Each structure stands twice: as C-alpha cells, then as structure tokens.
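Cont'd.
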Amino acid sequence: MTLLTAVFAAVICTVIWYKGAPKSEMKVGVLCLMYWGASLMWLVDAVFEYAELHEKYFTPAPADMLNDFYLGLSAVALGLVIWLVILLVKDPKGAVKAALFGKKTD
Amino acid sequence: MACFIVPAAEAVITTIAARAAKSKEASSESAKARLDGAEPLEAEKIPFSRKLGWLNKMLWGGSVLLAFEHVWHGEVVPWFPFLTAASNPADAAEMLHEMATVGVLMAVLVTAVWAGMLAVCSVIEKKAQKKEQKEQIEQKEALKKALSAEG
C-alpha cells in the first residue's frame, strides 16, 4: 500500500510537471524525482517481501493495509513539505525576496 | 531495518561528484566560447552535472522517505545507537545482511533507471544535433544556389 501510494503520487507529479514543461518555475521536477526514487526503493522492498510471503503478500490484513496507507500518505506529505522548503529557499519566481523587500521598505 | 543507508551513502558520493562536475563544466564552457564558434551546438547539450542532479534527487528523496518509514516502524530512534537493530549482535547481523541485499539492490535499481534516462536523453540530443546540422547544410546550399543564380 505504501508503494502504491508513492507510485500514484509520482505519476500525478509527473503529469503536473509535463503540463508545465519546459518551464520549471514551481520545481515540480524535484518532487517527481523524489517520489520516483522512493517508489523504486519501495518496489525492491516489495519484491523481497513477496519472495518471503509469496501469495500472502497480496492478501494483507485490513489493519495492516490501513496502517500502510496511512504511512504512505504521511510519506507523501513529508515529500510535499521538503519540496515546499526547497521551493521557498530557491525562490525561482523571486516572490519571497520581493515580499521580504516590500516589508523592509514599508 | 537500515536499508536506506546504502542509497543515502551513494547520494553523498554523487552529490560531491555533481559539485565537482559542475565546477569543471563552468571552466571548460568559458574556454570553448573563446576558442571557436561551434559553441551553440555544445550549449544545447544538458550538462552532466545536471544529469547527475537527477540521480541525487532520486537517491536523497527516496532515502529520506524510507528513513521516515523506518522511524514509523520504530527501527530508527532519536537516541544512540539510533538504529534499534544495532543494540544487540544478532539483530545487527540481520541488519547488515539486509543492507547488503535490499539496500544494495535499491541503490543499483535507482542507478539503473537513471542510466536508462541518460540513454534516452542521449538519443534525443543526438537527433536534435543531426537535425540542426542538416538544416545548416540546407541553408548553405540554398545560399550557394542563390549566389550562383545572381552571378
């Protein structure tokens, strides 16, 4: 479920990135690569888990599935927070600098 | 248990490599600009440091989100020795085995996908360069024909 959540997040981000490409004012590409990286790593995790559990891997207990989904959503939220920090620090549109500069002159 | 440490270690190495590549590219670009006029074709290529940046982002992003998962499951704690498996030798051995198998495979898969991205990128760049060269030749031939017609 965590892998599935990360893959969905990666796909959605990639579509958003493609819509805005080649401009990268919002730095969505960073978010895409982060989620794809995590998805690939969780894929490896899933393969090893499958090798251990076999068909049982596809029939998890509802409580485990809910916990994994909750974890996946939390991981996606953490990724969004990291992306937001990168966006505000790099400030490609100069909005943060303009806002700070505006406040200083008032 | 601690599989994310392997891709995180690779991320540290690739980040240093990307910075080194970026400083080298900056100096070589300025030298080329002084020497010849064939710079525009070179300038269209995506610099290697930027390509290495894609790998960095995948490795760092994946490692951070996986580290979060380990915190969630109580495998990483904010006090020494930080990894719960490191507190006794039996668990430590299992952790090292997981790092050697799952961790290494994670790093290898991400790097392989990045290599695939580079291959696709290279094909697109070569096609664009060929197209541009063809257009330049056609323009020159058209100019020659126009000049000979005038003469």
